[in-house]
Amino acid sequence: MSKRVALVTGGIGGIGSAICEALLAQGRTVVANCHPSEEQDAVKWQAAHKEKGMDMEIFPADVSSFEDASAMVEDIIKRHGSLDIIVNCAGITRDKTLKKMDVGSWTAVISVNLNSVFNVTRPAIDGMLNNGFGRIVNISSVNGQKGQFGQTNYSAAKAGMHGFTMALAQETARKNVMVNTVSPGYIETAMTAAVPEDIRNAIIATIPAARMGQPKEIADAVAFLSSDDNTYITGANLPVNGGLYMG
């Protein structure tokens, strides 16, 4: 059997990188997507990983565009013969209270965080169903479960991702296409590291595990759900949040 081919959108970010590394360790052929504006950073990311013996592809494409996402998926399938695993990890924030939120801030977050899930998955789903194998993991957020002040756009998009998961899971389970969600809590990344220490400490004080999570802990959850051995878990939302929110 040829190696499974995995696409990770937002693949060069903190969590995305860890996911790419975990899938590569599973023996997958890994394609890391990034926004075209990040292509130079992606080339450096690729080179740094190659120096460590981790050979992964990069593919710049705007996943908020159905045309760009479709062209990316079609190219991957043409070159590799299939696209077996999708991890929808691309995401942005444009935080404001609703009374201050403009249409652009709403639309940008919905387009990148939620519409991209459709844009990337739709052109790949026929091949997965025809091949009798597929693993789709959508990276949501604890804030899609509980909501968050100043994040009506982000919380709505992340909640919508799991709605997509549950509906698609019902359509594809008989064909061995498992669709699941992972909802991270606060994770130690460059973005959270930039938060002032007093605010970070206040956040950590609300987490029962008394720490932020590591990107690898999200990646391990993704690797588990996307494994060939997972043939019965679908439509699930796996929270990885240190006990911050228990639904």
Write a concise keyword list for the protein shown above.
9 helices, 7 strands, single chain, seven-stranded parallel sheet, alpha/beta, Rossmann fold, 247 residues
CATH fold name: Rossmann fold
Biggest sheet descriptor: 7 strands, parallel
Please trace the helix and strand order, writing H or E for each element.
Answer: EHEHEHEHEHHEHHHE
Round the mean pLDDT to the nearest integer and report it. 97
Helix content: 40-55%
- Percentage of residues in strands: 5-15%
Q: Round the Cα radius of gyration to an integer and report it.
A: 17 Å
Layout of helices and strands, plus pairs?
Layout: E1 5-8, H1 14-25, E2 29-34, H2 39-51, E3 57-60, H3 66-80, E4 85-88, H4 103-131, E5 134-139, H5 142-146, H6 152-172, E6 177-184, H7 190-193, H8 197-204, H9 215-225, E7 237-240
Parallel strand pairs: 1-2, 1-4, 2-3, 4-5, 5-6, 6-7
Helix pairs in contact: 1-9, 3-4, 4-6
Description:
The protein is an alpha/beta fold and 247 residues long. The chain has one domain: NAD(P)-binding Rossmann-like Domain (Rossmann fold, 3-Layer(aba) Sandwich), CATH 3.40.50. It has helices at residues 14-25, 39-51, 66-80, 103-131, 142-146, 152-172, 190-193, 197-204, 215-225, and strands at 5-8, 29-34, 57-60, 85-88, 134-139, 177-184, 237-240. The chain has a 7-stranded parallel beta sheet, with helices on both faces. Helix 1 packs across helix 9, helix 3 runs parallel beside helix 4 and helix 4 packs parallel to helix 6. The protein is globular, with a radius of gyration of 17 Å. The N and C termini lie far apart (39 Å). The mean pLDDT is 97.
